[in-house]
Amino acid sequence: MTVRIENVGQAVRQTQYAVRGPIVARAQALERQGREIIYCNIGNPQSLGQRPQTWVRQVLALVEYPALLESAAAAFPADAVEAARTVLAGTGGHGVGAYTESKGLLFVRQAIARFIDRRDGIPAGGAGAADPEAIFLSDGASKAGQGVLHLLVSEQGDGILIPTPQYPLYSATITLLGGSQAPYLLDEAHDWRLDRAELERAVAGAKARRITPRAIVVINPGNPTGGVLAERDVEMVLEFARDHDLAVLADEVYQENVYGQGERFVSFASVLGRRGFTDVSLFSFHSVSKGLLGECGHRGGYVECRNVPAEVMAEFVKLQSVALCSNTIGQIVTWLMVTPPPVGGPSRARWEAERREVFETLARRARMVEEGLNAVPGIRCNRVAGAMYAFPQVTLPEGMTDDQYCLQLLEETGICVVPGTGFGQAPGTWHFRTTILPPIDKIEAVVKRIGEFHRKVTAGR
Amino acid sequence: MTVRIENVGQAVRQTQYAVRGPIVARAQALERQGREIIYCNIGNPQSLGQRPQTWVRQVLALVEYPALLESAAAAFPADAVEAARTVLAGTGGHGVGAYTESKGLLFVRQAIARFIDRRDGIPAGGAGAADPEAIFLSDGASKAGQGVLHLLVSEQGDGILIPTPQYPLYSATITLLGGSQAPYLLDEAHDWRLDRAELERAVAGAKARRITPRAIVVINPGNPTGGVLAERDVEMVLEFARDHDLAVLADEVYQENVYGQGERFVSFASVLGRRGFTDVSLFSFHSVSKGLLGECGHRGGYVECRNVPAEVMAEFVKLQSVALCSNTIGQIVTWLMVTPPPVGGPSRARWEAERREVFETLARRARMVEEGLNAVPGIRCNRVAGAMYAFPQVTLPEGMTDDQYCLQLLEETGICVVPGTGFGQAPGTWHFRTTILPPIDKIEAVVKRIGEFHRKVTAGR
Hints:
With 461 residues, chain A is α/β, with parallel strands linked by helices. Chain A is 43% helix and 13% strand. In chain A, helix 3 (54-64) crosses helix 5 (78-90), helix 6 packs parallel to helix 13 (328-338) and helix 15 (402-413) packs across helix 16 (440-459). The longest helix of chain A is centred in the last third of the chain and has 27 residues, at 348-374.
C-alpha cells in the first residue's frame, strides 16, 4: 500500500473524540448482532423519536421543490408558502442549488442579527446591535468552532483555555491544529461553578509550560455538565479575558435548553455590550441541532463575531471559501430557527404547541435523570439545569476505570454512555455522560437499569 | 482587541484561493453599485440559470416533509414517492433530522458502490467491486479532498504532486496543512497532456528540496484545463505512483462532463482494478455539484478508497466524527445522483430529457467558448473536451500581468474571470479561467466582449 498508518501525522493520530469512540463502535457491533441498544452517547434528538417542527419542514419542502407552490399550495399553510417565497427571493432567485457567498446567504445573516438583538433586548441598529457582516454560517456549530480555532492556533505555544469537563470538539480540534490545551476545572461541588481563581491558576499553569493563552472556551449551558452560568459569571469571564488578552469562544448552542427553576440564559454578547467590553474579541456559536429543533442532520449553525478586526474576519472568509460555502438547507433551517411563523398566522399555534411539548418533555426528563441517578448510592449528579446531558460522578470499586464501567454497562444493559475520561474530570474522580433524550417511557428504564448495574458492580467487589 | 491579525498563523495567512479572491470581491462591489456582472469565475450552474432536476427535488421535498406522502401524493409521480420511502427507511426511520454515521448513511454508500461497479463494468460483489465501507460521504467533494490531504500531510517535508494548472483547493489545503506543493506541468502544446518524464522531473525536484512526495493529485476531466485523460494516461499515473510509493487522489467530479468527440471518461478505480494495481492506494472523489445536476448548494460528495489500510481509514472516520457527519440532504442528493428513476416508471422520460438538455447545452457552450476565443488574435484555447471551463492563453502587452488583465476586463465589461496565476501556469505565460456556464444567449456576448477587450488592450500599447 502506498498509504501507511505510520505516515499519518501525529496530530491526527493523537486526536480523540470519545462521543463516537470505541464504546460507541462496540455498541454498533452489538446492535448488528441483534442486541437492542439505547444510544445515550450523543445529543441526537430525532434519532430517539423527537419529531421535527412542522413549520421548518413545510418551508423546506417548498424551497426544495418550488413547483409545489403552484401544484400543492393547499397542502401548506399560507404563512409557510409566504416564508418559502421569502427564502427563494433571498437566494437571489437561484434557489437552494447554487453556492452561496462564503459567509452564507445575506438574508439569513440579517435575520440572525435581528434575532440576536431581540433575544438580548438591543434596539435593532442601535449601539451594540449585531452586524450581519460579522456572522458566518457553517455546517453545524462544530465547523464554525473549528474554523475559529484555526485562526487562533498554529503552534504548540498557542494555548486555549477549555473547561474540565468539556465537549471534546475543543480538545480534538486543538490537538489537530498542533496547539495546547490549558484546562480549567469547573467546581463540581458547587454545581459546576466557574471560579476566577481557578481560571488564573490555568493561565499561570499554561505560562509555566511556555504556552501563550490565546482564548478561553466557555460552554453555556454546559456540555456535559448541564450547568447554566449566571450573568455575574459571564461578566467575570469577560473581565478575565480582558485582563489576560484572551479571545472568548462562547459555545451557546444549548441557549434554549434551560430547565432549572429561576435559571435563565444570558448571552456573552449581551453582557459584552451592556458592560462595554469594547476590547474583548468574542465569538458566539449557535446551532439548529439542539434547542427545540434538534435538526442535527441538516448541519446548520453560525458564529457571530464581536470586536474582531476586519483583517481577521477576512482570514475566516478565506478559510470558508476554500470549501466554498456551508450547505444551503442548513442555512435555511438556521433562518427558520430565528424566524418564527407570524403571530396570528395559521402556523403559529401549532408551532407554539410543538415547541412547548419538546421543551416540557426535555425538562421532565432532565429531572427524571437527575433524581433517578441521585437515588443510587455511589452516584452523585449535579442539577441538570440546562443542555441535554447529565454528568454524574460514580464511586467505583478499587481498580475499575470509567472506561471499564461504561463498557460493562453497555454489555450488560445495552445502554451506551460515554466515560468521563472523554470529557476530562478532576483527578481521582470518575463520571459518565448520558443524554436525557430517550423517550419518557424508556428513560425511566434507563435510569433504573443504570442503578441496578451500579449496585451490582459496587457490591460485587 | 484580544484577537489580532499578527497572531493568526502563517499557514492560514499564506493560503490563497483565487476562485473567490480579490477580483471576485471587486465584482461584488461593482454589482452593489448597480453594474451588471457576469460571473464566469466559479462552476455554479444554478446561479446562471441551470434548472434543478425534477426527480431530485421531488424526492427531497417528500423526505423533508413526509406528511406530503399522505396529503399531496397526487402532486408526485409514484416512483418519486417510492424513492422517498426508500430514503426514509434507509435513515432507520429517523428521517433527515438526525446525525448519521460519521461515514454517512449506509444505504447511500451501498448505492454508490453499485453505481461505481455499473459505471466501471464490474460485476457487483465480484473481484474489484467497490466496498461501501470504503466510501465516505462529505459536504461536497472539497471537504473529502481536504480530509484525505489531512491524512497525508503533516509537515513541510510532506509533498503532494499537483498539476499546473490546478484547482486551488489543492494548493490552498496543502498550504493550510503546512505541507509542500510539488507541481508538475501539463503540456499545453499537446492539449494539456500528462507526461511521465515531467512527473519524474517533479519528483526529482521535490526530493532535491528534501521533500518526500506522498501523493499525486490528478484532476480528470481537468479543472481548469478541460482536458480528458485517455486510459493509457491513467495507467501511466498508476504505474508512476507504484514506482514512487505515492497515493493517488483522483478528482473525478466532472466525470459526466465529457463533450469531446471520441473522448470518454475512464475512472482510476477501473484501471486500478483491471490492471491489478493492488499496492497503489487510491482516493477517488465525486460530487453532486457538477455533472448534469449542478446541485452545488446542497454540498454533497464522496471519496471512495481502494488499497487503503483499515487503520488509515479509521483515522479518516475519526476526522469526520469530530464534526459528526456530513449534511443528510447532501447525502441524499448523492443517493439520487447514483439512483436514477426506474426504467419504464413515470419519472424516467422527464429525467432523461432534462439530463439531455443540460448535457447538450453544456457541450454547445464548450464549443462556442473554445471557437470564439480561438478566433481572437493573441488568444489560444485548447479543446474544451470536458469539465466546465476554458483556460485560454493570452498574449499580453509587455509589463501587463494576468491579474491586471482580468481586473481591467471586469471593470470595462462586467465579466468576472479568474487570472491564471490563481491556478498556476508555465513561467512566462498568462491565462485566465472562464466557466462555460452563462446561458447560450449570454455566452455569445461574453466571448465577443472578451475578444473586443483583448484587441483593444493589445492594440493600445
